[in-house]
Amino acid sequence: MGERRSVGPAIIRLEKVEKWFGDFQVLRGVDLEVRSGERLVVCGPSGSGKSTLIRCVCRLERHQRGRIVIDGHELDDSAATLNAVRSEVGMVFQTFNLFPHLTVLDNLTLAPMRVRRMPPAEARSLAMELLERVRIPEQAHKYPGQLSGGQQQRVAIARSLAMRPKIMLFDEPTSALDPEMINEVLEVMESLAREGMTMICVTHEMGFARRVADTMVFMDAGEIVEQAPPREFFAQPKSERCRQFLNRILHH
Amino acid sequence: MGSYTWGWYVVSPWTEKGQGNIAFLLSGLGWTVSLALCAIAVSVLTGLAIALLGLSRHRTAVAANRIYVEALRAVPMLVMVLWVFYGLPVMIGLKLDVFAAGVLALALCDSAFEAEIFRAGIQSIDRGQHEAAETLGLGFTDKMRFIVLPQAIRRVLPPLGNQFVYMLKTSSLVSVIGLAELTRKANELVVTEYRPLEIYTFLILEYLVLILIVSWAVRRLERKMASFEQRAN
Questions:
Q1: Is residue A201 assigned to a domain?
Q2: What is the pTM of this model?
């Protein structure tokens, strides 16, 4: 479990969020509050709505009922709020989604230059600084296809950080990786957590969760079933569903 | 069969008369090439715009795309050439010279096919690319310009090359309204020399050489643009 730190006021607030895919209800009234600097780890069986939840937070999906408020902006269909939210929330995908036709460096500099109007020289030095931070500055001029999965995911994290987001979302960032590459990605995420980044991580890496999370969230069937600090969460899960889930993933 | 006596002297490079005829036939080359280049340029840009309409979220834009593609795809090229050259002046008082009419007619017909090629190419790009671009804050125009189109265009290079070859060949139809391109020149020479078989064979070879050059250039371009994928291995 991470050292206790002071966390700030609520930066993400979800109120009774509901979402359907056709007739199927993926989110059934989710209430959640994340404070500035808080590290949240979300787990749960597949199909429980955890990915959809964070995809709603960065507006890749639209919720149909309830409210989502990010740093004072309520998510709606207006372009202004969309831009405000997109510039504050970074997203890391399971499948990296790097731009294959651009070099690593160009993957990092494109958005700061186009969206933030950053001068090219400044964008490049920011990019190099971030690549140092994820420990692959020597790959700057390669193309994503030339890197290992772990390296690609670290580049993807650096690419999100280049926009200087206040919040980072991780959607199963290590699920597509070979086992020997998982740790290098988790280490980068841990160092990010130490620097005080507000994070929501959807992951099944429970070792990581114990070390980093301030709050554990267990979702099942579109609902938050359990929410607790990791010590409590792992020692005495209150619900039967959560207990069964933890048994399955901790003893396999 | 077999009783025909060839008269290759009409295009013999070793006689003065043959050389004169060859020069005459080749003088259409400039028009053929510039016609095809201008028409493909107009067609690709129009086709791309029409494709983007088709991918829009607005129903009217999508409907406009469908109507454009279905209507123009159905018009035979020869009919379009005649219609643009003889029909537009009557209908809207627009009198184009033969070259402009040729470019417009070929581009209109071809753009419907280009639109479908681009639509397929753009749709083949993984959703994750769109999502990554969007979460980084890139707007629709930047996302298309820097992320989606560069990848889509690489994928559609082979069919685009195909369309250009097709364009070079169909440019021969513009001979009917009098543009002095390769086919027109051949027709004119046939009238004075009475050697259609030799002259049309020569014409076929002219198109063959042009198209081989295009194939080679497209292949080179493909290799160059696909290099980031090859280096991946």
A1: yes
A2: 0.87
